[in-house]
Structures are given as C-alpha cells and as structure tokens.
Amino acid sequence: MTARVWAALEAVRERIWFTAAIYAVIGIAVALVARFAAPYLPQGAAIELGSGAVDSVLTILASSMLTVTTFSLGTVISAFFGAASNVTPRATGLLAADGTSQRVLSTFLGAFIFSLVGIIGLQSGLYDERSRFVLFVATVALVVLIVIAMLRWIGHLNRFGLRDDTHGRIEAAAAQALAERIEAPFLGGRPADGPPPAGARPVLAEAVGYVRRVDIAGLDALAARAGAAVQLAASPGGFVHLRAPLAFVWQAGEPEEEKLAPAAFDARLRECFIVEPTRAFAHDPRFGLVVMSETMEKALSPAINDTGTVVDMLGRAVRVLSRLAERGRAEIEHPRVAVPPLSTADLIDDVFGGVARTGAAGFAVHVRLQKALAALAGLEGAGFGPPARAVSAAALAAATPHLAPADRAAVAALAERVAATG
C-alpha cells in the first residue's frame, strides 16, 4: 500500500468512533440475524421459556446502556482534560487511542443499539416465537459481555488518565517510534554519506506542516523508472514549508521507462510524502522526546512545581534513549533513496535541553539531569557522548547563578563526571 493509504488507515484506527461504529454494526446485525436463524432451531419448551422475558430485558438494557455510555464518555473526556492540564495537551491523543476505553465504550454503545433494534423488531412483529428465543439467547450473551466490560472498565478507571498512566503512555509511544527507527535506521534506504551532489535538484514542498510518513518504496520505484537517485531532505517529523525541499534528485543511470517530465516527476515524488498540520508519535521518534521535555517543563512551572514528575520523566527518557545502544546493521532494501541518520545531538537536546534551562534553580532537578546525562554518555555504540557533555555544560552554566555554593559544587562534580565519561 502507498504511504497515503497507510496514513489514512492509522488515523481511522485510532479514532473512538471507528471502533464504536464496528460494534454498532455488529449489534444491528445480531438483532437482525435472530430473525433468520429461527428456522434452524428445534421446536421445544426452551423456546417458550425465553420468549416471554426478552421484552423486559431489552427495555432495561436500552435505558441503562444509554446512561452508562453517556457517563463513561464523560469520564473519558474528563481524563483528556486532566492530561492536557496536568501533563501536556499532546498526551490527549494517546488517551484517545486507548484500546480498552474504545472497546468498553463500543460495547456499551453496541448493546444499546442492539437493544433498540430488538425492541423495534418486537413491536413491529418481526420475530416469531422461535426468533424471540434466539433474540433472548443473544441478549443473555450480551449481558455477560456487558458485565465483563464493566469489570474491566472499573479496573481501568483506577489508573486511566492519571499522571503515572499518562507518563507511561508517552514513554511507550516514544519507545515504539524509536524502536521502529532502530530496526530500520534509514527507513529501508541507504545511508546518506553527506550532502547531495552539487548538481542535485531540490523538489520543494507544496504544503506547510510536518512530514508524517514517507513512502520509501514508492520513491525508489519512481527513481528507478527515471534513472535517478533521491536523498531525503525531510524525514518523518520534519517541518516543511513552501520554500523547503522535500528531497534532492539527481541523475544516476539510464531510465527504465520513458523519462518523465520534471513537473510530473516532482508531482509523483510529493505524493510519497504525507504532510499534516501537526506532528504525531507514530514514525517520529523525536516527537515523543519533545513531549517528554514539555511534560518536565510544565511540571517545573510555578503553578505546578512538581519536581517528582521531572525526576520520573528523566528516568523514562534514559530508558527510551538507551535502546539506541542496541542498533544493528541496517538492511538496504531501496538503494536509490538516501536517508540521513537520526542525529543524537538532536535527540539529546529534544528531551534534555528544555529542562536544563527551565530547571535552573532546582538543585534536585540538576542532580538527576547530570546523572541521566552521565548514564547516556557512557553507553557504548549509541554516540551520546559529545551531545550529552554539551548539554551537561550548558545546564551547569544555567544553574550556577541560582544555586547555593554547596549545591553548586555538587552539581559541578556531577558535570565533571559527565565530561570524563565516554
């Protein structure tokens, strides 16, 4: 599939309404199937046993499920507002994509619609005696599912949207995006050895926003057809505007097919880039780190002043970035596309740069920051040494005017350890 199709599927899959719509359709289908499944049932006393109770059970379900769905949706929205105000607004998308919440809300909504369709069918004479028994059996099964969903929902609400839960979701999203990039550090292309050749032609963006996804396979096929080579100028997460190049193109052999005109080639190349107004966690390892930094900076604001959150997020940042030490050899699947590597300096600055400046007056923050930088600087093969030492020195310079002499000496000693590491 093309990058545009994958992006559309990912966006739809994370929406609450999509799961709810599926469950609603299932509810309608089950209520209607009961009408046509009856001929396959034997005549018997069991049919008489269930047929008299289904009307009242469906009425109870229809009234209660509407209330439960409305209340649960309000709870979810309250969790969104809590995460936005206490952590960062960028975290609300992670809560909205929570699978348990989507399934539970969809179960309640599907049960309501099933009950409503069943009541309409009963009142309109759609069901005979055996069909009513099938409907009763389906209703009993639905009640069991509702009980299970409610138990899961009660357990889930104990932590859903709380600070630790939201922090864990941010860490998991950042770690997943980084793990994908570790597995394919050049997105399946070949590593860019440096700037493009002098004769390379830039292909400019026609939209302003952030690159969400790049179809490397599509770029490689397009380049092979034109006998060209491509080097990315904008990777996932990069900001582009009307004067910013998406990629550079130059001739690198004979075309496999009739050569496209430059305008047609550029149009097809732009189709391989998905540009959206906002960033997303998927395929963008730097965005997760930026959100971690935002969380720490917000916790240090005078209105919140929560040093514990900063200490917690610093530990999570070290855990996420430590995965870069596991990097293996990249496989080149699309040799005509050159992709720049992730910059370790950018990664370090994304997550630690803000707190190094914002937490200038916090002794505990700077102690844990220097320890985090020392841990990353000592990782073999990750390449964090130089950028970690640079951020450590900048943090020490920012903190020095605000700390007491004894605290200043302690932070300076930790900064010296960072400078001596790696």
From TrEMBL:
Residue ranges of the TM segments: 16-38, 58-83, 104-127, 133-154
UniProt keyword Transmembrane present: yes
Keywords for the protein's UniProt record, in alphabetical order: Membrane, Transmembrane, Transmembrane helix
Entry keyword annotation includes Flavoprotein: no
Protein name as it appears in the record: Putative membrane protein
